[in-house]
Design goal:
With 165 residues, the chain is mainly α. The chain has one domain. It contains seven helices and no strands. The longest helix is centred in the first third of the chain and has 21 residues.
Length: 165
């Protein structure tokens, strides 16, 4: 019984965390079809689902429920395909650099946004802070604005460049 509740809780948390990345603003239209096949995107999504599901359940999901969270989250976001886990396995075994860059960027964003540990001197946070300052009249920014700039720098800009959109 508690397993189903944990799966539901983890799935909802993962969908909420990934929704800003999976859905583009309507003025830009949806991501192209290759979005859900791009190694960077897959690495990002896998890291986010793994980390957020662990945070949401205190790390109490075993392998089978964790797989159900992966599939359910991807179904909710419109990115599920029957070969998804096979593609992840191939990218992991090949140590695909784009896949691991997506994971690293997701780790940076999650660590900052969820305030998991201090990040003094982190070059990505410093760059995001400067980017966020450039969007204000006063040059003063808060954590949310810096987090938004990190998301833009480490996900949106990378994916747009990779997919040519």
């Amino acid at each position: 019984m508690f397993g189903a509740w944990r799966i539901t809780k983890a799935r909802a948390a993962c969908v909420q965390a990934l929704q800003p990345f999976a859905a583009r603003p309507s003025m830009f239209g949806p991501w192209p079809p290759q979005f859900w096949h791009d190694p960077f995107v897959l690495g990002f999504v896998v890291f986010v689902i793994g980390t957020i599901s662990k945070l949401a359940t205190g790390g109490k999901l075993t392998s089978e429920p964790r797989a159900r969270v992966f599939v359910g989250t991807l179904e909710d976001l419109g990115g599920y395909s029957p070969d998804f886990m096979d593609r992840i396995d191939v990218l992991t075994r090949a140590r695909d650099p784009d896949f691991f860059l997506g994971s690293r960027n997701a780790e940076t964003i999650i660590t900052y946004v969820y305030n998991l540990h201090p990040m003094p001197g982190d070059p990505d946070v410093a760059a995001a802070t400067e980017l966020a300052k450039g969007t204000t009249l006063t040059g003063k920014v808060d954590r949310d604005e810096i987090g938004g700039a990190l998301m833009h720098m480490l996900f949106t800009q990378v994916v747009r460049k990779r997919l040519g959109v």
